[in-house]
Amino acid sequence: MDLVIYFLLFILAFVGMEFVAWVTHKYVMHGWLWSLHKDHHTGSNHTLEHNDWFSFIFAMPSFIFIFFGFMFQIYSIVAIGFGMTAYGVAYFVVHDIFIHQRIKLFRNVDNNYLRVLRRAHKLHHKHLQKEEGESYGFLFVNKKYYDMDKNSLLDSK
Prior knowledge:
This protein is an all-alpha fold. 71% of the residues lie in helices and 0% in strands. It has one domain. The protein is globular and about 50 Å long. 16% of the residues are buried.
């Protein structure tokens, strides 16, 4: 029974991180920490961006949950920490590798969800200033981007 609860906590933490990512992206990264996020929108010729500091910032809570959860044998906290970590790994693979091609993998993937996800992110990046943004989420894509995709597919036929 405990294993089922830990698995559910893992899943809830993973899914809940989408809300955390959306709020953080809209109000922190496009707010008071825009100075770290700006180079991600304006482009950089460097392998690392100032924006990459967010990876370390976001890794800290999951590390703390896992470390202290194991230390005090509170495995529900460990499960939450691993759910947060899994979200971070998914973010890295989808955002940095698939969308931005920082590592040249997954170049010719043609999947409806991934195509729409990529389009939503590209529309987010068309805004070079911190204001007037759109599509702050990561895994859950607004229906309007699916509608755009359907329309563009119909236009190409």
